[in-house]
TrEMBL record:
Keywords: Carbohydrate metabolism, Glucose metabolism, Glycosyltransferase, Transferase. Residues 1-10, 275-292, 1027-1039 have a biased composition (Low complexity). Residues 1-86, 99-246, 273-307, 993-1039 are annotated as: Disordered. The lineage of its organism: Eukaryota, Fungi, Dikarya, Ascomycota, Pezizomycotina. This is Trehalose synthase-like protein. It comes from Chaetomium thermophilum (strain DSM 1495 / CBS 144.50 / IMI 039719) (Thermochaetoides thermophila).
């Protein structure tokens, strides 16, 4: 056959191809109406054309390359940046540095049939080993491509440097198919009117670029087919969605139907050559006109599949061509002047900042360049965005995180220039591994909640993530981030199935790192905690906590912190709450008040009310926790190994658990002050309530109390008793250090809330203020706070001093706290009735949950009060000390354990308002005294009251109980004998406390002068009782 005949036959073949759908040209697989792939034989003429031109086309395409840097080049045996990123995830490391090559296997280059199982292998250029990544082929292109191309399985450790890169093109030993080399990617230059020439990717069977053809049913020229067709999607079923490279390479799609417009790189085209499968928009059986073509069943050639490395380089090239762009919006000169004037006149809390959300995304353009995009959203739409190319070079080898450095600097700069406050930032899972410190720095330095999201939103549904540019990805992250915040711009608390408390926006908010927590404690505390965490992981011990409410009180705060920390440490710890029933919470609150001795002397809980509490617990237990898969099923059926019950609302669970699993350890944690002296007196309301509770608690294997012996009723066996203080988290919103900008934002929120309720606003820093942060509870001593402030103001004015400090009384509500409204009304009545002249200087607020708001108010106060009449531990005292605030507190409950009298604060008797006024005058008139106490407060807090110290105690108890088991026939069990859990754990791990360490005083539990077992005594002659001092309010009332 001469050359002229060959050209004629090639032209006939091209004419036939032009009559078919453009999307079917490059593929040999068609689909039936049911979606099954069909193999069609190749016509003889077409086979001959293919054979004659195959070698020529390969030679032509071998000389072509991607102009923008995706050249087919030899990979160095040792990748320069790989050793510098030990913390990168597998998918990031593999995609960014390993440069894997896809090696399709099978007996045919055509698409496999439904029943034909093929596998793909990814082989590192410097290694002879391969990692099988694929599952059997499926007609579902989503699942097939995700399973086939997932890069997660490739780890840096499996690649030995120094191997020859020629291994990439060796035949697969399992098949007769050679590894595919670079095919038919050609770079042409599209020059647009609005920008420089940008590589535009097209295909041609002959190796030459061709003009686009528009057919009926295809998108119009230069339109975005992905914006019109709902088929572009990303599979999520296979697991991780955080691949560094856009998943467009690993999901099925077609060859680009039309060339891209100027300055737009066609990712769909790159996707086609990475997958080698037809587009979901192409049925493969009809022509563009909708008529069946006579040659529709003829054999088709399959476009050669590029290696993963080629697709990666092509996509990175596209990202690299994304121009750098700076933020374009800015605040007007008038607004800047107005905000500055407002700050000067109304104080630091005056200016109102614009609330915004941030979206972040990034990809590696090449081995030493990252492309980072920031998208700014209000609650409605995109406001602005930027794109930046960051050259990494050797910085990452030195442990620097240049991506995080750039983002932190850029975001802070934007906030200050535009008088804005970013509340949350959404970022894809891959970015967390690309920039290991970004999340924690956003949280700790800029007070931005980082929401780490799967690009596909964790659902098996179609999305456009795989075809988006990096700036579009950032925009998507910002939109999804907003959905994790409630109306008050606080992250949404989620309680899942079976009452599982999903802290931190369903575990999406990644606030801290392990290193952050390690920096909050000394080495002995950390090593002790790690000892028992390791044991729990090795034994796969499951721990389950049960408490009454997921937010509002100190117990909830401790559990939030413990769950968050345990997830970082890999400890299987889950927290459950029952489905709420408001009527029951009123009963449990009465129980709480009676045990503390702050209720009316005649108040009691009826038998019907006690039964209502038991029925509530039993219903939740049977419905959620004892059902199949529940946490209270036996451990061999997947239930928890160790169960901890919190407070007096939940003891009804204990006998139910013991009935099903009598040898599973159950620990009871008491968080409140119990008037054991009144409990020991028969016939008292306290004795009645305790008898009801003890009938259930007695089956627990351990009784864990605050470290005050008198809190433990007389009938609790002392060998079951251990002591554990309440704790707080130094890295959460309540305690982390806020900068001036963020403090101003939250202070303004407080003043706006005050203004809406016609309450006194704060004028800080022009005027200092005194604060008590506590729930509106009868035991918190709020009347004493007001009386003390009134006496202080009288002395201040008598001394002729200007600008008297203001008073703030505030706290959050709780689901199980129905008395809050009553106590609030009593507080306002006391002010308005007895001290109307002070109303304008006193701010009394019930606040919505907002940790940073409480943090701002506490950290900027001059003095912090805690004048409780009854108290368990009240960790707010330690939080105030940690912030460097001198405190004036009552000598009750566990408060004295935290305060060194006249060193970091003052201890007063409950109700002694005159002593409080005296100490207030001292702290406001003696600056040296205030500074000494402030320094002692900030440096004297023990590790025992932090999250790591709390985790240490619980990990020890869980590990030890799992090891020794419940006592049976005199063997097993863990004897408490009124010891501190932290002491037991430190000694067990080989790190006993040293004299120089800060720790809570032990003499409160060693001093037995306080009767632990009160006994009835013979009546004595009445003694003269000293009348307590009348308060100014009482004196005026009597007059």
């Amino acid at each position: 056959m001469n050359e002229q005949q060959q050209q004629k036959q090639r032209q006939q073949g091209r004419d036939l191809e032009d009559q078919e759908s453009f999307h079917r040209k490059s593929f040999g697989a068609a689909r039936s109406e049911e979606g099954e792939q069909i193999h069609m034989p190749t016509p003889p003429q077409q086979q001959e054309v293919d054979e004659k031109t195959s070698q020529q086309k390969q030679q032509q395409q071998a000389r072509k390359n991607l102009r923008a840097g995706a050249e087919w080049r030899q990979v160095e045996a040792e990748t320069p940046l790989a050793p510098a990123l030990p913390n990168l995830g597998q998918e990031v490391a593999a995609a960014a540095f390993c440069r894997p090559t896809l090696q399709p296997t099978g007996n045919s280059p055509h698409a496999p049939s439904k029943s034909h199982a093929t596998h793909s292998r990814i082989q590192h250029p410097s290694s002879n080993s391969t990692a099988s990544l694929a599952a059997p082929h499926s007609t579902d292109s989503d699942e097939t491509d995700e399973l086939r191309y997932r890069l997660e399985s490739v780890t840096l450790s499996s690649h030995a440097p120094g191997s020859s890169s020629s291994n990439r093109h060796k035949p697969d030993p399992d098949t007769n198919t050679d590894t595919v080399t670079q095919k038919s990617l050609q770079t042409t230059i599209s020059t647009g009117p609005s920008g420089p020439a940008v590589p535009s990717l097209h295909t041609s069977r002959t190796g030459h670029s061709h003009a686009p053809r528009s057919h009926s049913g295809d998108p119009p020229p230069y339109s975005n087919p992905c914006a019109q067709e709902p088929w572009a999607h990303t599979d999520t079923a296979a697991g991780s969605s955080g691949d560094l490279i856009s998943q467009s390479f690993f999901s099925s799609s077609s060859e680009a139907a039309l060339p891209p417009p100027p300055n737009i790189v066609d990712r769909d085209y790159i996707r086609t050559f990475a997958s080698g499968t037809p587009s979901p928009t192409s049925s493969g059986s009809e022509t563009p006109t909708g008529r069946s073509h006579p040659y529709s069943q003829r054999p088709r050639r399959t476009a050669p599949r590029l290696s993963i490395r080629s697709a990666v380089n092509a996509y990175n090239t596209a990202m690299a061509m994304e121009k750098s762009r700076k933020f374009s919006t800015g605040t007007s000169v008038h607004r800047k002047r107005q905000m500055s004037t407002l700050a000067e006149k109304e104080g630091h809390f005056g200016p109102s900042l614009t609330t915004l959300f941030l979206g972040i995304s990034a990809v590696f353009a090449d081995d030493h360049t990252a492309v980072v995009a920031l998208a700014i959203h209000d609650t409605v739409y995109l406001v602005d965005f930027s794109v930046k190319h960051i050259v990494l070079d050797d910085a990452m080898r030195m442990g620097a995180d240049l991506i995080a450095d750039y983002i932190i600097e850029e975001v802070e700069k934007y906030e200050h220039e535009n008088f804005a406050k970013f509340v949350g930032a959404g970022l894809p899972t891959t970015l967390k591994y690309m920039s290991p410190t970004l999340c924690s720095r956003l949280w700790l330095e800029l007070d931005i909640v980082p929401i780490v999201l799967r690009p596909d939103d964790e659902h098996k549904e179609r999305s456009f993530w795989d075809v988006k540019r990096v700036d579009e990805q950032a925009d998507s992250m910002a939109r999804k981030c907003i959905m994790n915040f409630g109306p008050s711009l606080v992250p949404i608390l989620q309680v899942g199935w079976r009452g599982v408390v999903q802290t931190d926006c369903g575990f999406r908010a990644h606030l801290t790192t392990v290193q952050n927590h390690k920096d909050t404690v000394n080495n002995s505390t950390w090593e002790t905690m790690m000892t028992f965490a390791k044991k729990l992981r090795q034994k796969k011990t499951k721990i389950a906590f049960f408490s009454s409410t997921p937010q509002g009180g100190g117990v909830a705060l401790m559990r939030h912190a413990l769950v968050r920390f345990s997830r970082l440490m890999g400890v299987d710890l889950t927290w459950y709450v029952p489905k709420p029933r408001p009527g029951v919470f009123h009963i449990t609150k009465n129980i709480h008040n009676i045990l503390q001795g702050v209720s009316h002397p005649d108040q009691r809980v009826s038998a019907e009310e006690k039964q209502a509490v038991i029925d509530w617990i039993t219903e939740n237990a049977n419905r959620y926790w004892f059902s199949e898969g529940g946490p209270l099923r036996p451990p061999e059926e997947g239930g928890a190994d160790i169960v901890i019950i919190d407070d007096p609302q939940m003891p009804g669970l204990i006998p139910l658990i013991k009935k099903v699993t009598p040898y599973r350890p159950v620990l009871y944690r008491s968080h409140i002050q119990i008037r054991s002296d009144l409990v020991a007196k028969p016939g008292t309301p306290q004795a009645d309530i305790w008898d009801f509770l003890w009938s259930n608690i007695q089956y627990a294997d351990m009784f864990i109390s605050h470290p005050i012996p008198i809190f433990v009723p007389h009938n609790v066996p002392r060998d079951k008793v251990v002591y554990l203080p309440a704790t707080t988290d130094w890295l959460d919103g309540l305690n982390k250090k806020l900068n001036k900008w963020d403090s101003g934002y939250y202070g303004n929120i407080y003043n706006i809330a005050c203004h809406s309720q016609r309450m006194t606003e704060l004028n800080w820093p022009a005027r200092k203020y005194i604060i008590q942060v506590a729930r509106f509870d009868p035991s918190k001593g709020i009347p004493t706070v007001i009386d003390s402030y009134a006496e202080f103001r009288r002395r201040w004015e008598s001394a002729g001093m200007p600008d008297p400090p203001q008073l703030v009384i505030c706290g959050n509500g709780s689901v199980d706290d129905p008395d809050a409204s009553l106590i609030y009304d009593q507080t306002m009545s006391q002010l308005e009735t007895y001290y109307p002249d002070l109303v304008k200087d006193v701010s009394v607020m019930r606040l919505d949950p907002n940790d940073q708001l409480i943090n701002t108010l506490l950290a900027n106060a001059h003095v912090v009060l805690q004048l409780s009449t009854r108290e368990g531990f009240e960790v707010k005292v330690s939080e105030a000390l940690h912030a460097g605030r001198p405190v004036i507190v009552t000598n009750t409950g566990g408060i004295p354990l935290q305060v060194k009298d006249k060193v970091n604060g003052f201890l007063v008797a409950p109700g002694d308002w005159k002593a409080v006024a005296t100490h207030l005058m001292e702290l406001f008139t003696d600056d040296d005294l205030w500074k000494r106490m402030s320094h002692a407060a900030s440096t004297g807090v023990s590790d025992e009251v932090g999250t790591v110290g709390n985790a240490l105690a619980w990990y020890y108890l869980a590990s030890k109980w799992h090891e020794v088991g419940v006592e049976r026939h005199g063997k097993g069990g863990l004897k408490g004998n009124e010891r501190w859990v932290n002491d037991m754990a430190r000694e067990e791990a080989g790190y006993p406390y040293q004299p120089h360490e800060n720790r809570l005083p032990r003499h409160f539990t060693e001093n037995k002068k306080v009767p632990v077992h009160p006994r009835p005594v013979e009546p004595e002659e009445p003694k003269e009782v000293t009348e307590p001092q009348a308060t100014p309010a009482e004196t005026e009332a009597e007059a």
